[in-house]
Amino acid sequence: MPVLSEADRLLLDGVRRGDADAWRQLVDAYQGRLVAFARSRCADPASAEDLVQECFLAFLQHLHRYRGDAGLETYLFTILRRRIIDQLRGRRLPDPLSAAAAEVLPGRDPSPSFYARNDEETVLNQSRLVSALQTLVAGLQDEQRFDDLLVLDLIFTSDDRNKDIAARASVPRPRVAVVKHRAFKRLQALMQESHDARNTSPAALPDNQTLAGLWRDYRLGCPKRSTIGGYLLGTLDAPWQRYTQAHLDAAECPTCRASLDDLQSQTDAADRETLRDRILNSTVGFMTRPG
User: Which of 132, 216, 234, 261 is the most exposed place for a label (fewest CB within 10 A)?
Assistant: First the structure.
């Protein structure tokens, strides 16, 4: 399934050609939610805006590293999160987007799977596993089994015990174990189908920590921003409305909360334009050197 939307792909094509208008549109599209996320992590609003400015500069400086393996929103949040971590640790990387940071996606610190991605077979197996996870999530969404999806989201994004997950998801405690068992069984079947199609032997499913890392990396439980917008307007079907609220409140997803905060507040236009102009001015030199 494609990771980049057609709109983002067109913007990126323009940015790579050195199109200043495309870059302005990209900054306008993502600035608000990044600022909301940074402000939720920083006590000083000015410092949050500085970090967002650095985030866009780092993205543009290292655009050649972006291969589209993750969505543009996810990738920008990656860079911003690394900048916030560096600030909290009281240091700055010489390279604003190190090779390692370019691969780590939002969530917690790099999962064990991150350090194992060194050979082609590992990458291929991970790709198949991510595809299986995406198929699992799509199936739950199509069947509107949102309680099960929320349980998986909590399993993979928290360290809570089953009883605590059950309480947060408002389901009976035994349901957590059932959902996990069925999910792993379905994943195993999907991986078997993938390997059968290639006449290869599937490896055993990785441990729960590795699966959790991929779940967080690819934000598999996250609704789209348009869905969050529909939630805010109250225009979603009831099952989607309940799931989105639970994902925001029970799972406490920081990136989706940032999108919601941005949509709710729509930062004052004057402030938004001021920061946008700072970002554009600080990156103008890189836009004259496309590629």
Answer: 234
